[in-house]
Each structure stands twice: as C-alpha cells, then as structure tokens.
Amino acid sequence: MMFKGGIILIFVLNSIQSTFCQSPNTGDPNWWKNAVFYQIYPRSFMDANNDGIGDLAGITQKLDHLVDAGITALWLSPIYKSPGVDAGYDISDYRDIDPIFGNLDDFKKLVVEAKEKGLKVILDFVPNHTSNEHDWFVKSENNVTGYENYYVWKNGDPDTPPNNWISYFHGSAWKYSEKRKQWYLHQFADAQPDLNYREPKLVEEMKDVLRYWLDLGVDGFRVDIISALFEDIEFLDEPRSNNPNAKETEHGYLNHIYTNDQPETYDMVYQWRALLEQYQAEHGGDTRVMMTESYSDYDKVLKYYGNGTHNGAHFPFNFWFITHLNKDSNARDIKFIIDKWLTYMPLENTANWVMGNHDQFRVATRYGSARVDGLNMLAMLLPGVTVTYNGEEIGMENGEVSWEEGKDPQGCNGAQSDWEKNSRDFQRTPYQWDDSVNAGFNVGTRTWLPVASNYKTSNLKNQLVKGLKSHYRIYQEMVKIKKSNTSKYGDMRTLALTSSVLGLTRQLRDNPTYVLLLNVANKEELVDLSYFRDLPLNLTVKVPGITSSRSPGSVISTKLVKLDAYEALLIGKLGKETISWTPPTRAKELDWWQNAVVYQIYPRSFKDSDNDGNGDIKGIIEKLDHLIDAGVTAAWLSPIYKSPGKDNGYDISDFRDINETYGTMDDFKELVSQAKQKGLKIILDFVPNHSSDQHEWFQKSENKEPGYEDYYIWIDGPSDTPPNNWTSYFHGPAWTYSKKRKQWYLHQFSTYQPDLNYRNEKVVQEMKDVLTYWLDIGVDGFRIDIISALFEHPEFPDGPLPHHVYRNDQPETYDMVYQWRKLLDDYQEEHPGDTRIIMTESYSEVDKIMPYYGNETHNGVHFPFNFWFIQHLNKNSDARDIKSIIDKWLTYMPHRFTPDWVLGNHDQPRVVNRYTRGHVDGLAMLTMLLPGVTITYNGEEIGMENGEVSWEEGDDPQGCNGNQEDWEKNSRDFQRTPFQWDSTRNAGFNKGKKPWLPVAKNYEDLNLKRQKVNNLKSHYRIYQKVLQLKKTDTLKYGDLETLALTSNVLGLRRRLEDNPTFVLLFNVGNKTEAANLQYFDNIPEILHVEIPSIDSKREPGTSIDSKQPVVLNPYEALVLIG
C-alpha cells in the first residue's frame, strides 16, 4: 500500500493460526480472550423483593436479558456482608452474602442458572480493606493474639497522624483508635481499615477466601483497587501532585508514590494467579480469570499482566477510554489511545476495553448520547475483551441525585459545593427496564437512589420494539459480530481518516471483512477509504448507528463516503472472500523531497578552507562529494547571512548578504551551481523572528525614522520595569529598554536580537522579498527558524510560567506560514523546475505543530520538523516508547502530508550522548526505513559525540549568559565542534589554525576517513547502505508495520508487492533478547541479513528462519530482506 501518512497498526492475536482442541476435563482455556464481561451493580439492577434495593433474585430473574444481549460473563460488584458505609466495599464477612441481596442459597441458585444458560459468574474481590466491623478488625483493635498485625497500625501522638497521606474519601488516611492507642490506615472511609499484607497469616486468609468462592462455582474475580494493596514500609510523607484543581483535603492533592503500586503488590497478584492456576489443575473446567482495577500510569498498570517469569492478572483493566478521552477528543486521540495500549501491552497478552463503570460518569454523559453507538461498536470490534457496565447497552445517562438523596461517601464526605464533581451516585441509579413505575426496577417501593427522570423514553423495553433502530439492537448485533472468527482472529488496522473520523478494519482470509467508520464530530465528514488496502470498491452496510440515515443492506462506495454528524457505521462484505495484500496504485510519483535525506550543515564547523579557524562556503564546496558519496538529497545550511555573530549567525544584520566569515555572494552562487551539477539541492535557514540590533531596520526603528517606527515590538513603560514577565530563551527578561527611543523592545533571544513586528505589513513584505531574493539565486527551499515565536498576543499579558502561551504558536503565525507557502507555490508556477520547499522548527505540542502542515483551505509547510526522537526518547527508552512515538506522529499527521524524522541538530546533544554508542546504527536504520523525510545533522553519519568545550572556550550565548555551574546543561557548543574528517591535525577541519571551538579529543579514532576503509563495518558504511535502500520503491511506496516484539526489540516491516520486503529488528536494550517474527502476518519463511549493525556478529547474506526466535545481542540492529 502506498504510504498515505497514517500508520497501519497490525495487531494479530496469538491464536490466529491456532485450532483449540479441548478434552472435557481440561475445559476451555481461552473463553475469556474474546469475551464480553457485563458489570452488574447489584443494588441498582433488579429489585425482586420490592424493598428498594436490587438483589440476587432480581439478577437471576434477569439472566435472560444477558443471554439475549450475547454476554459471556456477568461480574457482580460486592455482594458480601457489609454495614453498607461504602455500598458494599466495606466488608464484614468475606464468606457470606449481605442480607439486602439475599443469602448463600440465592447466590448458589444464581450460579447454577447462569451456568445452565452458558454464562460465567465473576465476583468482586476487595482485598485492600475490610469493614471496621469485621471480626478480624475487632480482634486486631483489641490486640487479640494472632490478629495484632492483620491491619496497618502505627504509633503516634493522638492529635497528629503518622504522615500526610490522604484518603480517597477526603481528609487524613489515618484514624486514631482509643482502644489500641494507635493509628490505623484507611485509604477510603475510616470505617474501611486497610489490611496488612506483610502479615503471612492475613495473606493465607485471603487466599482461603478465593478458594471458598471458587468451590462455590465462580469463574473468576475482579480485584478491586489493587494499586493500594501495599504501602512503603517507611511510611514517608508523599509529595505534592501540584494539581491546581485539587484541594488540600482531596486525594488528588498528593502524588501517591508510597501508597500505590508498590513492588510487593505485583508479587501478591502473581501469587493469586498461581492459586487460580493450581485450582485449575486440580479441578479442571474452564479457565478461572482474574482482572485488576488500577488507574495508575501505563508503566504501572501493565506490570499486572506479569513479569516474564510469573503470570499476573489475565488482564488489568484498560481505563484509557475513561481517563484519557472525552467528548472533546477527536479521532486521532482515540486512535492514539488504542495504539498505545496495544504497543505497551506484551504481544502474548490479551487487550481489554472498558468504556464505563460504577465509579465513572456514564458514557452518554462523558461523551454525549450521540456517540454511544460508535463507542459500543468500537469496543466490540477491537481485539480482546469488552467490558460493559450495566445500562451502557441501552445508552443510559447519569441520573439526578441531590445532595440530600446521596449515598456515596466520596461525595458525602466532601463539601456540598463539590457534590456533582465528587459523587458517584449519578451513574449508579437503577436500571431502566421499561416505562412502568420505577422503570420496572421494582413494583413501587422507593428506590435506594432515585430513578433517572428520562426512564419513560430511555429504557430497554422501548429499545426492543421490532424494527426499531436502537442502542440495544446495535449493541446486540455488535456482540454477534464480536463472536465471529474475523473479530477473534483477524488482523486489525486503525486510521484517523480525518481529524474527526476513525476508521477500523478487521480482516481474516476466507472470512467476512468488517470496516467501522466513526464520526466523532458534530458536522458532516467526507472520507476516502482507499487509505485502507484490500477493500473492494463497494461494501454493504451491516450495522448503522441510530444517528445514521442508512439502512442495513445498502451499498457504499469505498472511494468517498459522506458521514453525517456523529454517524457510526459498520460496513463489510459477508461470505467467504480471499483477502490478499495488494500493491498501491501509483497515481502520482513522490516528489523529490517526500523521500529525501536532508543533511544539515553547520557551516562554521564543517570545513575551513582558508585556515582562519571558521568553516566557510568554499569548505562546503570542497566537501560536496562527501554528500554525494553518502547519498543525501539536499544540504541545508545553518545561517550564513551577514551578522555580528552574537548568536552564531542567528543575529542577522543583512538578510541579503553573506557573512564575510563564510565568504562572498559569489562563493555562495558557486556553491549553488556546483551542488546542482552534482544533483544536490540547497536549503537555506530563514530566520524571520528577529534580526540583529545592528540591522539597518532596527537602527532606523530605534530612531523612529518614518516608515520604520513599527518594524519591531516596542512597548511603553517605566525604564526600570519590563512590560510583562516574559523571559528570554537566553536567560533574564525578554525586554530591553532603549534609552534612545524611551521604550522597551522585545527580544525572545539575546538583547542583540530584537523581534520583528509581523503586524506591520511592511515587515511582512520585506521578508517575502527576502525569500524571493534567495529563490532567484537558485536555492531550493528554506528551513524556518523558531517559527513558533513569530507573533505575540497583541495585549502582551503576563504569561503563566513556564509556559509561553502568549508568544508561541499564535493564530497569526500559521497564517503567515500559509502566505509564505503561497509565495513559493506562485514562484513555482512562474519559474518551473523542482519543487521549492519550506520546513519549520517548533518544539511545541502536537496540536500546535500539525497546523503548520496547513488546513482545509491553505497549504502550509511541506513538513514541520518532528523532534520527538529528541524530546521524548533517550537512552532509557524501550521499544514500546519508540513505537508509540512513531505511531503518534503518524496518527496526528493528516494523511495527505509527509512525515519526517529528526534525530539530532545543532541545538541538541549528539545522538551518541542522548542515547548510547550502541544505538547509533539502529536509529539510523530506523529513520531511513520509516516513510518520509530523514534529517541528518552533520557528523551523525559517523557517530560523532559531543566535544569538550570549557567555560572559557565557550561561544554560545545560551550557555555563556547563564551561570558557570549550569554551563554543561545550557551550552550548545558541545554538539557544534568541528567535523572530524580524518586523523590529521584538527581532524582535517583546516590546516592548523586554532578552530573557533576545539576539535573533539577522540578525532584520531572517530573520523570519516577511518570509517571509509574498505570492508570495514562502520557507522558511515551502514548509513550509506541504508540510505541506498531508502531510494527503493519498497521504502518509497510500501506498507509500514511496526511492532514492539518485546519490551526492548522493535520490529518494523516495509513491503510492496513484486518488490523486496525489508524488516528491521532493533534491540534497544543492554541485554540479549529473543524476538518472534511470527507476530508479523505473512512474513517470508526465510529472510537474509542485508545490513547488520557494527555490533552484530552476523554477516550480510546470513539466512534467518522467521519461524524460529531471532536472538539479538545488546543493541544489535539488523535490516533483513525477503
């Protein structure tokens, strides 16, 4: 498939090639892997005895609803004996049923009838705490022998809690016992004391509880609030979270590093999993499952799956549709969240998707009722487990519960003003069965929480009307599709077809194909399904959402599909069909820049031809053959304009002349001429944000010469007080007072670099003329420096530190970029030839960077620099981190645009220093094999390291303007030391004159000449070879698949029919790893090593059997061909 700009994520379930053969005594080990788990909140489900509270008999009475819906397993929120302080999560007896729900016989009857109907039964397991009325606590509080340490007790002054820990339910997490004269921990209500899992007797007690319920026939457990199980043994104060919305008494006020996800917690989960597996071995039957609840960060949550040597939970709940998404999320946000879970989850494990639960506002409330169908469709079509909270299948919304009617301690223990924010009662109102009294929940008794006011129109009975399109009927149909082989075993691809439309396909050879289209926006969207490969020209509507005007069976062209606002649509082709990989249609060849390697030259450090200590243009000309030999497409020159040199040429005193340090205009013209003869493009730095204070414009503006008064940003104010709190990139205020003009001028960099005023049309035209001037000389494009700083908020308000919200990425900045693009496009029409390009520098967030590409009506830059390999990755990043960063860029980048990959530049420490020497080859391979543009900073092709530059030798104002103790942190001189050409004096940079910065000490061993020795495996030779591969059709047009084959091994495949397939294996870790290539679908049986990294012991041509694990040494990278 031609790469269109969005990653195609291939997720293949382990069982895709498996046929399960079970004997009666072994049961089905995999029933849960594609299951629909249905959470029942018993108090609110069905009240059989009309006492106002739901009960077990009511659940039994309604089992046929679950069967009708197609549910696999019902999971019951706590039904244990309890005083009811926290709706059953305060347990006084783990082995008995609370009388409000019935008795053990009622439970046994429920289990029997559920199994007869093919339903599994899952119980909530609440191991963190009990009720203070539990026999264990009563005995522990009284120091009864054997129970002294069943809970977490601490000594202390009766008036001062042992530390600052805060309860989930507000206030201190400690309560003083007058009986025991000690404090006990309660991370929830003070009636819910925390159990002490450092006590072996308690651990065995809880294991016995699990065995007890297993003996009664339950099929597994959902483990409540697992993250809180252990606490740090030192009981240290927890640090502030700095959450501005959290009050001092609220749980979110602290960062819970000592009470959440402690190492011992994972071990306890592994022990419970071992118990379940032992029980399975002894009793046979279907697998008993464990699922865990934790809202922690992904690196904590995913450890609950296991650690490689121990199995953990069958799946930890994936709450990201709750915690990371809402009604404001777009299709790219949704795709990224899906990709991220599947990236970080080990491939051998099973994914799960939770849309809602009893602790979170209902889906219809969080997202809007119009999105309910699409989200249910999505949750069913994604691979793995779907978890549904009762009522979500009919699109129930939050109910109305007043402060006076409330029951939830999380809300009731807080301030009344925070009731609607904190209470969980709204999502716990009774199930809406029909339009009779109390929505059919009971026959008239006042319900424990009020029934939602919309029950007469929003209820199951209304949605069961034959022929009616309803949330429930759609849910029901999607559950059926989830049970198909395609959904169980098929591969999955997700694309953000537009910013508002998510597309998802599930395909399996000889089985139906399904395509989900989900428009999350409140406006029509037009989408092109040809971005998905393998789809026929026409597909049939299978399941339309209730907002869709389409009917099942109608035919849709896959070329262009118009979707109504919020429309969700499942389309497909039923019956057997052959799914084969097909090549792209090359309607248009890539333009020269779309697969280019752009090579950044820092002129002052590249080559000094006249031996004055500074690199120059003639030196660049002298070394053009190196660029040709390497295979690069274009040379981009950092600033060479006339400049006083206060910031290495970024302080420009004449935008139309050459700095004499580098040569003359004739030298530059000669460079352009020779480069073109050799097939190289020349790109110039364009520095539009500021000039030098020596520029003629500034001097005239400072003197208020007519026509120049507003060329810069001038603000009135007292001479001793800057106009606002804005700070410079180079330390101190971003304002300098001009005694001449009696005003302040803005300089976001040094005081010698005043900011230009783009609200002045004369300045706009001046800079457009500058662009045209250099285009006329023959340059092929521009890299626009620090584009984000171009405009400032017109009122110049103080900004919140450290964020520059009033001077970065203002709306007018994007418009100016669009104007410059139009200038280049117009120039192209008037002066035919190869495309002239612009690329921009911005380190902003993704939502600010992507608009530089353009919008629906205007073209922007050809590509904004992608600095994420610099900003978000380093030597500690694993394969999942790298994959996630790749996925995210390709997800948020609109399809019609071209990605780019930047590993380093003159402002950042070199790749070797940010990563390790071992990473150099793998990163070069990766950025060449990825689709789009590769940017190389001079010296990275040979693996240059940061040089050694002392405070006294320093030149960079970012370092020199700071403190000497911060020199190594702030200075950019280290990555700007001269290029290491050979082992002669000054590394061949010149003939002996002291360079402007010292040559790195390792130049005799690390230099280009040495790496070009015949038959030597070197960074340069690897760079050269992989760059040649980049020019192949496979890498220009081929499909891309990325997988984290292990936590440390990144796998990447590019394939194009009738062309070689390339596979990259990159071990980013410092230990040996074995990678399974079978996670790639249709991988060739035999592959051959095309390019090994310098640390690899494999030679080119070595055969690799893809059916066998590939063992990779630390940092080993291989490009394979097949």
TrEMBL record:
- Does the record's keyword annotation contain Signal? yes
Q: What top-tier enzyme class does this entry carry?
A: hydrolase
GO BP terms: carbohydrate metabolic process
Q: Which InterPro entries does the record associate with it?
A: GH, GH13_cat_dom, Glyco_hydro_b, O16G_dom_2
**Protein name from the UniProt record:** alpha-glucosidase
MF-aspect GO terms:
alpha-1,4-glucosidase activity
Q: Name the species this protein comes from.
A: Ignelater luminosus
Region Disordered, annotated ranges: 949-972
Question: Which residue numbers delimit the Glycosyl hydrolase family 13 catalytic domain?
Answer: 39-428, 600-976
Sorted alphabetically, which keywords does the UniProt record give?
Glycoprotein, Glycosidase, Hydrolase, Signal
What family is this? Belongs to the glycosyl hydrolase 13 family.
Which reaction equations make up its catalytic activity? Hydrolysis of terminal, non-reducing (1->4)-linked alpha-D-glucose residues with release of alpha-D-glucose
In short, the EC number is 3.2.1.20
Per the UniProt entry, the signal peptide is 1-21
